[in-house]
Each structure stands twice: as C-alpha cells, then as structure tokens.
Amino acid sequence: MIKLTFACTDWSLLKQLFLVVAAGIVLLPTAMAQSNPIVTENQQPGTSNWQIPWGLSADDVTGQIKGYASATSVNKGQNITFYVSVNFAQTYTIDVYRMGWYQGLGGRLLQRIGPLNGVRQSTCPTEPVTGMIECRWAASYTLATQTTWTSGIYLALLTNAQNYQNYIVFCVRDDNRVAPLLFQQTVTTYQAYNDYPYDNTTGKSLYGFNSYGARTRGKPRARRRSRSTGPTIPTAPVPAGAIPSSSGSFPSSAGWRCLDMT
C-alpha cells in the first residue's frame, strides 16, 4: 500500500514528485501481475457454457432441478456438500465453473460430475408465524475442492436429464494468501430478498413487496439467514439451521464470507 503525505507548497517540486509516483504506479501493476494468481488464472481458456439457455432455467413451482450448498465458502482443498432435488426422479450432472475474465467468456470449467441419480426431496416446511421456509434435504454430493484452484466465485451448474438447469453459488477462499484487495460476497443480502419458492403464493422475504404466505402483513418476517446462496439469486432453498458465520480469515460483523481477489 502506498500512502503519501504532503506538507509542501512548492508546486514544481510536487509536480516532479507526482510524475515519479505515476511512473511507479504504471510499472507496479506489471510487476504484480507476473506473480498474481488471479491474473494468471484469468489467462486460462474459458467458456460461456456456464450460462443457462433461454427457456431451460428451472423454476421454483415445478422444481425441475434445485439445490443449495452446505456453506457459502470453503478454503481451497476443503469439502462442500450439495443438496439437490429433481422433479421427477432422474439423473443429473454437476459442472463446476470458476467465474472470471477468461477472454471475456466469463467462466472456466474445472470439474464435471455425474451423471448422478437424483430424487425429489421433501417439501420444505413453513414456520407458521413468520412464514420462513427452511429445507431439510438429504445430502446429494460432496465436492472436494482442489488446493490448485484459484480463489474466486464458483458456480455449480446443475443439469437434469431434461436439460433444465440451475445454479449453486459458492466461494473458494485462499486463507494462506495476503492480498491488497478484498471482495465481500453479500450472502446475507441475497437471503434478505430470498422469497423461495418464487410462486407468488408462499415465498416470503424480509420485505413486503415480494412476500406471501403465513401472516405476511403486520408480523415480523424471518430473521434467520442461510449460509447458502442457493441455486439462484435471490430465490433459493434455505437449509435448516444454517446461520451466517463470521469465522474464517476475514471475519465480518455481517456474517459475510470473503475472499482475496488481486
């Protein structure tokens, strides 16, 4: 980090100093980029196949394929568990992408999983007073992230046998790396607007404009927030008992998980 403090009124001297600093700033990114794992990763060949084609995005009403993760973030090399439901019972695949530049394509495929045998998970119960819906699904697959993976935002692209798709979003951290720039993923904000299932009937967020169901008006809405960002943002199944955690190398009072980006 460069910190400059001036106590000088000689503008010619200041001008010369600014020119020297500017020259250093121009050279600094080039030197840093050579050893920056994010820059190196983003030079890898990418793909746009992470994008869901029009008409094939699974919806909450039918639930062609939906899912959530056991955590919003894991350190690279750790495991993360996915909870997946399909309607009707059928096979599905999981493609794990890292989001990044990648020649403007937006993502890079790191792992392909499946086909796996899917089941229709149980209906998520509704708390009668607040209307909060929490899912208690059985674990479907545990992903072992690799120590060679670069920190960043990752998508697990779920695809059922009928080609309907959905996302599970999670973060891979690098807890051993110190970086000058930190990105905070606002998972609590995602959940504040989460009115899963988005069916205009039962979904309920922390706000009245997109809340439905049990005692919506004049009553407190759900205050517990999930650590899972779920398959779509903002509508996503909420895992039971999942409370935001501020543990990790970059704690936050909001319970967000963080990662280094540069």
Briefly say what this structure is:
This protein has helices at residues 11-35, 37-42, 187-192, and strands at 65-69, 73-75, 79-86, 91-99, 107-117, 141-144, 152-160, 165-173, 182-185, 257-260. With 262 residues, the protein is of the alpha+beta class. It folds into two domains: 11-41; 45-260, Immunoglobulin-like (Sandwich), CATH 2.60.40.
Secondary structure blueprint with pairings:
Elements: H1 11-35, H2 37-42, E1 65-69, E2 73-75, E3 79-86, E4 91-99, E5 107-117, E6 141-144, E7 152-160, E8 165-173, E9 182-185, H3 187-192, E10 257-260
Parallel strand pairs: 2-8
Antiparallel strand pairs: 1-3, 3-6, 4-5, 4-7, 7-8, 9-10
Description:
The structure is a single chain. By secondary structure, the protein is α+β, with helices and mostly antiparallel strands. It folds into 2 domains: 11-41; 45-260, Macroglobulin (MG2) domain (Immunoglobulin-like, Sandwich). Helices cover 14% and strands 25% of the residues. It has helices at 11-35, 37-42, 187-192, and strands at 65-69, 73-75, 79-86, 91-99, 107-117, 141-144, 152-160, 165-173, 182-185, 257-260. Strand 7 (152-160) and strand 8 (165-173) form a beta hairpin.
